[in-house]
């Protein structure tokens, strides 16, 4: 999935988000083993330290945990933690900006809601 290696986001963040996405899509489930840093580095042709940094980021967030001598596994409740973090990020990074821009160009709450309701993508 690391097809966006050219974008501004660091590779280790892309690895981290890819694993989070797989948890959200139920490709990886709670208590299931995730690919090792060696597997990730070989598959995506990246430095093992970069893959490890992405994995460790998820450990720090309470998404993954290590079973000594076996590998990394998805924590219980990981999917809910990811959803909550992404909802907060979505609100901060998108909703607030949309509201700010709407106010700036004179779109009121009713018109903004109508635009959203008429959007077919949702």
Automatic annotation (TrEMBL):
InterPro entries, per database record: Tscrpt_reg_HTH_GntR (IPR000524), WH-like_DNA-bd_sf (IPR036388), WH_DNA-bd_sf (IPR036390)
GO MF annotation terms: DNA binding; DNA-binding transcription factor activity
Transcription regulation keyword on record: yes
Record Gene3D superfamilies: Winged helix-like DNA-binding domain superfamily/Winged helix DNA-binding domain
Keywords: DNA-binding, Transcription, Transcription regulation
Domain HTH gntR-type, chain residue ranges per copy: 9-77
One Pfam entry name: GntR
Domain of life: Bacteria
PANTHER family for the chain: GNTR-FAMILY TRANSCRIPTIONAL REGULATOR (PTHR38445:SF10), HTH-TYPE TRANSCRIPTIONAL REPRESSOR YTRA (PTHR38445)
Name of the protein: DNA-binding transcriptional regulator YhcF, GntR family
Organism of derivation: Pseudobutyrivibrio xylanivorans DSM 14809
